[in-house]
Amino acid sequence: MRLYDYSASPNCYKVRLLLAQLAIEYERVPVDIFGGDTLEKEYADINPSRRTPVLEPESGRYIPESAAILLYLAEGSELLPEDPFERAQVHRWLFFEQTQVYPTMGALRFLVGTGRMSAEDTPKRPSVDALKLLEAQLAERNFLVDDRYTLADLALFGYVHVSGEGGLEMDRLPAVQRWLERIAEQPRFMNDLEPIPESARTDGSRSIYDS
Question: 150 with 143: CB under 8 angstroms?
């Protein structure tokens, strides 16, 4: 099993976290998304969208998109409920992460961290709205689904725990803060997410994010 990933990407980190928590051995294949690696034809053959992460569970078979990878890996584990309603709730939060967290909090971290925009100039309202929804959901429960740790919590942790890097004031969200702490206490938890490097800035970047 191989994972094509980028060390500073929360989308990639959450897959590495799941692999660690499931104690699955794999080969990590670093992909420099700002160094031109994803612009090569060889990578486009692996993932036509030229993004990371991509899981290769067996030779020549590829699964792109982080949520699809998480669902594939978590099948049969305690992190993905068997009950259809509870499983649908996990899916709900995975979709929420990709539609309301990744494009907002993730974009803030990317734009500020790569110098493409300043923290003062980036729109924060969509990120704040998503965080308020999480705060309300977690105000009277420990985790997002069935009050136990599931794939939903793992997936959202990837971006939420670094949202302060985009200039968001996380100290105003006590329920979210306690939830982040509970996730960090889970068995085999690890955090190897690296800071966004200088090479990601526009003056040195060769990527799909550059016009």
Answer: yes
State if pTM tops 0.85: yes
Contact call for residues 101 and 160 (beta carbons, < 8 A): yes
Residue 206 lies in a domain: no
Question: Cα(207)–Cα(189) distance, rounded to whole angstroms?
Answer: 31
Per residue in 9-45, pLDDT (tens digit) is 999 999 999 999 999 999 999 999 999 999 999 999 9
* Domain identity same for 133 and 170: yes
CB 50 within 8 A of CB 66: no
Asked if 46 and 70 sit in the same domain, the reply is yes
**Residue 121: pLDDT above 80?**
no
What letters, b where the CB count within 10 A reaches 16 and e where it falls short, cover 86-114?
Answer: bbebbbebbebbbebbbebbbbbbbbbbb
In terms of residue numbers, what domain contains 93?
84-184
CATH code for the domain of 47: 3.40.30.10
Task: State the burial class of residue 137 (Cβ atoms within 10 Å of its Cβ: 0-12, 13-18, 19+).
Answer: middle
Give 60-112 pLDDT, tens digit per residue.
999 999 999 999 999 999 999 999 999 999 999 999 999 999 999 998 888 88
